[in-house]
Description:
Layout: E1 6-10, H1 17-31, E2 37-41, H2 47-53, E3 59-63, H3 80-86, E4 90-93, H4 96-101, H5 106-118, E5 122-127, H6 131-135, H7 139-150, E6 162-166, H8 180-197, H9 200-205, E7 208-211, H10 219-223, E8 230-233, H11 240-249
Parallel strand pairs: 1-2, 1-8, 2-3, 3-4, 4-5, 5-6, 6-7, 7-8
Amino acid sequence: MSRKYVIAGNWKMNKTPAEAVELINQLKPLVAGASCDVITAVPFVDIPAVLEAVKGSNIKVGAQNCHWEKSGAFTGEVSAEMLKSLGVEYVIIGHSERRQYFGETDVTVNKRVRAALDAGLTVILCVGEYLEQREQGVTSEICAMQTKIALQGVSAEEMSRIIIAYEPVWAIGTGKTATAQQANEVCALIRSTIASLYNQEIADNTVIQYGGSMNAANAAELLAQSDVDGGLIGGASLKPADFAAIVAAAK
């Protein structure tokens, strides 16, 4: 296995460019010695300033979405090529907030994944169930289905540029967190789904994060699980000390 912990901060719709640079400058010395990969996924308008601010550091920069077309009449959208041309390396695709508020479907998630890979980006692919679905006992089916559809047309070689983030929707921004056992069970299920699509070696090498109210207090327990390879961090990523504590726990 060649898995390495990946801690990614999803800033969501927060921080002006000036505020973003200030946050990055606070964060840089706190994570300089990290043994894991550190990513910040920032709003589109912050990308140029943040790319400049992270120069010489170990912090990588990601975007929070991209469109599936290279160009066209898609007002308000940004293409994967545009992101790549700026110097962005990562893009989050299929976040539950995109699915919930902006009409993302499993099919459009797949199209965006394909576009991002074609542009040379690494994808952080989000999957996860709603509380109602967990209570109905269909978590396994939902997460397997989302994973399978999102990865349609993705080659075995391209899987090295796919990170999967398991994000139970009921635990995002709610303060509720899946137990370490619950998180590990679903991450293991996603890994077995990847094995069925490709092979066990690719499954063993795929980084699977947990997202959903991971914070400085619970990170160590979650990251100690055998199939949890990092975190996609929301609110805590906006607090340098808290985010650095999560990074420190990823050993």
